[in-house]
Write a structure and sequence with these properties.
338 residues; six-stranded antiparallel β-sheet; three-stranded antiparallel β-sheet; 11 helices; 11 strands; 14% strand
Length: 338
């Protein structure tokens, strides 16, 4: 591979360009490179760190990872935070052009919260709302925190690197419909949950006929992070909601024109395409209504779409399960199948 030589100023300008795109601080740069190093992106297994193989600060306030070049003995290869590299010749102080390194998911995903980190954030936000505090916050409030981790008078919860504490006699409002009577936001959220057709606290007998859903995966309007535990479960009663759904359908489908039906089918098809591959489907109650609307339209106008109706016909065939892009028969997206 031919290496085109660039001047020091050109090299600095190139690196500055990448710095402006990244817009990260030095410590972020260092940690990002460290993630790539640990993942074997600069050599697998990662080369041992020593006087010649190490992380180095740059004049531009960033970091690089340096190691001796195997392909070009006597030179060093420098890896940047943008997962690119260039060669440096210490004999003449010259630098090569930049080259793209192999894909490095550890660097590409650096700073992107994992599912566990997102769950931890929800947990922390919720328990803070239940009067839990960090050790530093307790110290600032002049609390005696000596031996707090082994003190039976304190509750302790840990999420990732964050540890929260609360005195056992300092309870906050709970999660049921009877707790927090003065919490207007929570009461409004509970009303929205019930209005969407979900049971919050069914009996053991009722649970046998209900389907559970994670509350925060439903996207119910008015339900905000921190109001309920991150793993709060609610239950949907299909039988109890059937009359409500059917009544809504009857009210909306008294005399549906062909053009309105085309719009509904296309909107439902796009909703399916947008949600395809997701781990959960939001707004189950509203989705069932829209699905029944589309079924009514298909039964009413199938074969009568008129000129340029091929597009609608293809969408219907997909929603019916007759194409490669159709909803599955038993997966999460099966609710879209007509």
């Amino acid at each position: 591979m031919k290496n085109f030589l660039v001047t020091e100023q050109e090299r600095i300008n190139i690196l500055k360009k990448h710095r402006s795109l990244l817009n990260e601080g030095p410590q972020d740069d260092y940690k990002k490179l460290q993630a790539g190093y640990n993942a074997g992106c600069f050599g697998n297994p990662p080369p041992a760190l020593n006087n010649t193989t190490k992380f180095l600060p740059t004049p531009q306030g960033s970091y690089i990872f340096r190691k001796p070049s195997v392909r070009q003995p006597g030179k060093f290869v420098h890896y940047t935070t943008n997962n690119e590299y260039y060669f440096f010749d210490p004999k003449n102080g010259q630098y090569s052009n930049l080259f793209k390194n192999q894909p490095c998911p550890a660097m590409e995903n650096y700073g992107v919260p994992t599912t566990q980190e997102k769950n931890n954030q929800y947990e922390i936000q919720y328990w803070r709302g239940q009067n839990y505090k960090t050790l530093q916050e307790l110290q600032a409030a002049k609390e005696n925190v000596t031996g707090i981790d082994n003190n039976p008078s304190w509750d302790r919860k840990q999420f990732g690197d964050v540890v929260l504490y609360r005195r056992k006699d300092n309870k906050a409002g709970g999660l049921s419909t009877t707790d927090d009577p003065n919490d207007a936001l929570r009461k409004a959220a509970l009303a929205s949950i019930k209005a969407a057709g979900y049971e919050i606290e069914p009996t053991i007998e009722q649970k046998r006929t209900l389907r559970p859903y994670k509350l925060y995966e439903l996207g119910i309007q008015g339900v905000e992070p921190g109001m309920f535990p991150p793993d709060q479960v609610v239950y949907y009663d299909k039988a109890a909601n059937r009359n409500r759904v059917d009544l809504a359908i009857q009210q909306q489908q008294t005399d549906v024109t062909k053009d309105v039906c085309k719009q509904r089918i296309e909107a439902f098809y796009q909703e399916y395409m947008n949600n395809r591959g997701e781990d959960y489907i939001t707004d189950i109650g509203g989705l069932r209504i829209r699905k029944n609307e589309v079924r009514f339209c298909v039964n009413r106008w199938e074969g009568k779409w008129g000129l340029f109706g091929g597009k609608i016909k293809d969408m219907v065939e997909t929603l019916k399960g007759n194409t490669a892009e159709s909803p599955s028969s038993s997966g999460v997206d099966s609710i879209f199948r007509l």
